[in-house]
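During the second year of the project, the team shifted from modelling isolated chains to modelling whole assemblies. The rationale, set out in the original proposal, was that interfaces cannot be judged from single-chain predictions alone. As a representative example for this report, we include one of the complexes processed in the last quarter. Its constituent sequences, exactly as entered into the pipeline, are reproduced here:
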Amino acid sequence: MHDIIVVGAGPAGMTAAIYARRAGKSVLVLEALSYGGQIINTPDIENYPVEAHISGFDFSTKVYEQAKGLGAEFVFEKAVEVKDEGGVKTVVTTKNSYEAKAVILATGSENRKLGVEDEDKLVGRGVSYCATCDGNFYRNKVVAVVGGGNTALEDALYLADIARKVYLIHRRDSFRGDDTNAARLQARENVEFVYNSNVTRLIAEKRLKAIEVINKLDGSVRAIEVNGLFVAVGRVPENQNFASLIQLDDAGYARAGEDCHTQTAGVFVAGDNRAKALRQLVTATADGAMAATEAVKYVNSL
Ligand code: NAP
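Output from the structure prediction step:
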């Protein structure tokens, strides 16, 4: 039996592990994939205090080593259920089950799909959700990025250094992402902006060859030849497996205040899967600190 199980080894979960270990609690971190979460794919973080520039990979590795160095245990298994038996919570994974007095759900979010036909089939054959992972396959080729948030803007910037041409396709004519990123992108000569438009069809033989794009204002349809399509249309919170213990809002985010408490005593949420106004690295780590502090108080009260 651990004091605290943290589900998810992104910045929120690993920060929670650091705080809980420093408070003397035993901590197990369960993670489905690898440590780091979404931030691991960010090439350059420049808005987190202390380091002016650090890659998402280096940042995540440092936090992981810090948490491990403090004695947090990491197991790479996907948590699929949490059972609440009062003072004991059981976290069921695809392989085992683990018990703890408190659980922090720091599960983050997964890529939102565009929802067009053959999107899943073409992943790895022209369709990607990660520019830093797959961008290098498109050196001197033509790619499109879909989305208008910071991820899409940063992906387009990253790809503009690698690809011959980048189309940035957005369903509106103003960006949700930062003005700084948009201005940097506007200065790039090999980037073409396709505003007020949606990708409606993927045209492929063995691999993606072109995309069909509809202009929402005048209804015109255009086929754009591309070698790659990078989908960056936001994320979907990963709360579905725990919906019986935590209240979700209409978009699937966990309803919990800044104290990270859920409606179930001893179950806390931290990071991007919590309903909040600003999802950034700094707010994710802040959540981790808060959730761990509250979880420690809960464990001490038992
Ligand atoms: P986001 O901010 O939610 O933006 C998603 C974008 O995709 C929006 O522009 C949205 O359009 C568009 N979109 C959503 N569904 C769509 C669909 N079905 N078809 C076409 N377009 C669609 O997501 P994100 O860019 O992944 O960013 C997530 C969070 O991480 C944000 O808070 C962001 O600021 C943060 N982030 C920060 C950094 C950084 O600070 N360096 C880097 C990356 C991400 P509308 O605008 O019309 O809704």
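The CA atoms of residues 214 and 221 lie 5 Å apart. The mean pLDDT is 96.
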